[in-house]
Design goal:
The chain has 504 residues and is an alpha+beta fold. The chain contains 20 helices and eight strands. Strands 1-2-4-3 form a four-stranded antiparallel beta sheet. A four-stranded antiparallel beta sheet has the order 5-6-8-7.
Amino acid sequence: MKVYLAGYNVDTTVLRELQKEGRERMDVTPEVLSAAYARISRDPRPVNELRDDSRNEVERARKSNQTIIFKMGHHSVAEHAVFNLDILGVSRLAMEELEKFRLCSYTEKSQRYITLDKDFVIPGEIKGTRYEAIFTEMIRQQNEAYHQFFAKLKTYVFEKHVQLAKDEKNHNLLEGWAKEDARYITALATESQVGLTVNARNLELMLRRFASHPLSEIQELGRAVYGAISEVAPSIVLFHSANDRDLRTYPELKELAGDMIRKAPGDVSGKDRADVQLIEYNEDSDTLVAAALLHTSSDLDYQQCKVMAKAMSESDRKRIFETVFRNLQLYDSMLREFEYVNLTYQIVLSAACFGQLKRHRMATTTAQAYDPRLGITVPESVRETGLEEPFRAMVEKTNEAYQTLRREVPLAAPYILTNAHRKRVLMRVNARELYHISRLREDAHAQWDIQNIARAMSGEARKVMPLVCGLIGGKDRYNEIYASLYGHPPKVTEAVLPGVRKIK
C-alpha cells in the first residue's frame, strides 16, 4: 500500500510568489485559506486582506483554526482545505470502505478496461499464519481462471461482433467487454488504485472511521493518509483517532440483532425474493411533486398547493409534468422538486455491480456482508461460451476456502470471495437521483449487470409514480421516450462559448 499527497489548494498569491522566488515558504498550506475564511463572519476587513494576514502569520492561523474547530465547533471551515491523494495497492474490499464517504470524489482503476495482473492484498489477519497458504493458493487459481476465461471470451466477443471487429479502433472496446466478464471470477483481494479528492472535514471523518475499523488494512490506510497530510495541514484534521461510536455501535447492534433473530418465531430468511424490490415509497408521489412545483411557481403556501394538486384532474396534473419535461435535454438534471418523494429498494447484487452502484453517493445506501448463500451472478457470455461449469467449479472451491477462513479468521474471509458473489443492499433514493441513476446506468454503454439493476429500479418506480417517472430511462433512449410524450424529439439547443464564433 502506498499513499501520496498529490496536491492541495494553495492561495494563488503564494503560487505566483513561489514562481518568482523559488524559496522555501511556510505558507504553502491550505490552512491559511481555512483560517482566512473562518474570520469572514467576525472580521469586517475584505476577505483578500484576511488571506494576506493568514499567509503572513501561519502559526497564528493554525492556532485560530484549532480554536474555531475544536473549541467553537465550527467544523465547516475545514471544508475550505482540499487534498488530492493517490492511493495505490488497496484491495477491492477496502475500496468499498473508502468510497462510502459521499462528499468526496473518486476515480478508480477499472477492472473493466485494464487487464488484471495477479496483484492482490494478503490481509494482515492471516499474513504469517498457517491460513496464508490456503488464501494465496485460492487467489492463484482464481487469477489463472481469469486469464483463461479472458482469452476465450475475447475470441467469443470478436466473433459475435464481427462488423465492429473489422475496424481496429473498436478492438479496445471489444477487449473491454471480455475483461469485464472475466473479472467476475477474481477476488475482492485484488489490488486497485484510486485518485481521491477530499476536504479536510470529510477527511477527518474518514480517518476516524478507519481508525475504528476492525480490518487491519483499513487501519493501515488511515495511518498512511494521515501521514501524508499531517505535516502540511496539522491544524484542521483534529479528531482522527478511534472513538466508541465507530468502534462499538455496529458490533453491539449485530449482537443484539442475532439475539432477536434467534428468538423470532417462524422463517425470517426471506429466500426466493426478487433481486430488486421496491419496499417503500411515498403514496401519491405524483400529487406531492405537482404540489411542490406549484409551490415554487406561486405565492400559495404548501398546504394550499397540495389541496389543489390532489383536487385537479389527471390531465391537469399531467400538464404540469409535461411543462417540466418540455425543455429538458438529456444532460439536464431533473428539477429539485423531484427530491420531495423517495423510494427505498432492497437489492441483491454482485460485487462487480455494487462497485458501480455505490458510486451514486447522494443516495442512502447500507449493505450487509457478502454472503455465498445468496448465490452468484454469472455473465451471459460465460454461459454462451460453455464456461459456466468451470466458472461455478471455481466458485465452489472459493466457497470452501471461504468457510475454512470464516471459521478461523472471520475478518479476512470476505477477501477471498469473487466479483460474482452477492450481497444484500438497502438503497433509498429521491426521484431526482433515480433519474440520474437511470440516465447513466440504463444507457446502452453501461455495463450489463448494473443496466439490469437500474432497469428494474425504474420499472418499479413507474408503477407507483407514473407522472413523476414519465421521462425516466437511459441516455440512449432519451429521444425515443421524449417523442412518446410529445410526438416529436426534443429541440436541441446549441451552447456556444462566449467569444467563440459558430462555424456554419
